[in-house]
Model the fold of this input.
Amino acid sequence: MASVPPKASDSDAEFRAFFRAHLAYVCESLRRLGVQSRDAEDLAHEVFMAVHRRFDELDRSRPPRPWLFAFALRLASGYRQKARVVRETVGIEAEVATEQPDAEAQLARDGDRRTVYQALAALPIDRRVIFVMHELDERPVPDIARELEIPVQTAYSRLRVAKDEFVAAVRRQATQQRTREGGIHGRA
Amino acid sequence: MAELESLPPDVAALLARVKEPAPLEDVHADALERRLALALAASHVLEGSLAAKTLGATAFAKLVAFFTRKATIAIGMLGLGIASGVVLHAVATPKVSPAEVTSEAPVFASVAPRASVEPSVPAPAAATVSVAALPPAVTIAAAPPVATRDPASSLAEERALLEMGRSALARGQSADAVAAARKHERTFPRGKLAEEREVLMVQALAASGARDEAKARAARFAQGYPRSIFGPAVRAAASP
Done:
């Protein structure tokens, strides 16, 4: 309440522009962090509600994505706890199976992303976060360590393991894909 | 600094292709923006923040909300009416009469998030909430609920109706969504969320197969709210 800016309409306009500019990034980050596509928009809504509450803390001299990622990270971990996505490694597969035909076609068109989401889902969350922040958002490891409040060496070693796991998951998918295309057994 | 092995070229290339976020369809972004605007408008009203230009107006709107809520549950109506009248006058800045303040406060409360986007759209609800009617509490108790309902609670009711309609639409129960929109139209013909109602109406009508009415409504919407941020969403819903 005390943080109400005097010129509400100006900051509202700015917030809206900010929302439009970064909505896609927030949705993408949530997906990378294991939020299923049917929940991504709900979570994005929550993210921007939280962003709005803290909008006066936005540092316009810095890139906004890392700031937003922190919100996405917080909301996504709450989501995982709430949804008890126990089978994290099979979560994406289960989702693909329950998608509507339209959505499935959409996913097929966006095969690269599906591959990445699915491979990311194979990583435990602490390593997945670092992998996403470094390999996809291109943030320096020391920054990541600071934000996650872990020692830099820990961050490096998690990232190293995460990379191996990610590559392995991508290879595994490729093998499964070939098996499916070979028509030996079509997995539901 | 620890050296990291680089990823195999094909995996690195895969990651490079998905580094930029997937673009969101405008329809989705519009829908989310609408939802966010509504949620923020609601939270502004609840918190009594960001709604009014001045602290005086905010405090005033909150007082109105507080006292009229009491009044509508009919406790010590007359005395409260007088008391609230006194307090309201005391709180409102001397220069500004209560009628002026409240004719503004609800408008900012409800449309603050989009006020800057479409400044030319007239705020339809402003005239329907008359504060002059508030202090005599007997009038409040006797009058029909819509005319004298306090701004915050009627906005909450409007929002609840539309929320019901939207969730019905999301579940694929378009008839229920149309019914909710129609009820909103009957109850709050010039309500503060009239614009949002029309959006829901067009979407629900289109989904329920009432294409002609959806189109007619969409056309009327385009005229009534030429600069609405919901314009694209309404057009998209009404076009086959």
